[in-house]
Specification:
Elements: H1 2-16, H2 19-22, E1 26-30, E2 38-39, H3 41-48, E3 54-55, E4 58-59, E5 61-65, H4 69-78, H5 82-95, E6 102-104, H6 107-116, E7 120-125, E8 134-138
Parallel strand pairs: 2-8, 5-6, 5-7
Antiparallel strand pairs: 1-7, 1-8, 3-4
Length: 139
Amino acid sequence: MKKTSLFLMAAAVLAMVPLAARAADMKVIANPSVSAGSVSADDLKDVFLENKDSLGGSHVDPVLEKGGPAHEAFLKVMGKSDAALQTYYRSLVFSGKGSMPKALASDAEVAAWVAKNKGAIGYVSGDASAPGTKTLDVK
């Protein structure tokens, strides 16, 4: 009984922790052409699920990491497993409603892509260097 109570208490505390705090292992970066300085968690999900293609009036194009700690933190924000996210993107492609976002192998590749491509938005590890990009505050 004690284990169940402890588990429920831990789950309740975790539910109260802000989404941004749970995603401390990643930061959202954007090309400087993106006018937004912050993004809500819902808008971030909409951008990466291709339900929305602009932030703050600027067109955005999402880019993913193929794996690693930043990608795992991103999946938590999205509320999906990697397999579920890939299935979602495949269904967009199959139905003609969207395309697979570019997926790169590392923080450095994502940061370089975002820095050089107008409207690009991605994520990297919280402590990663991302020169030429700006960090968006996730609210």
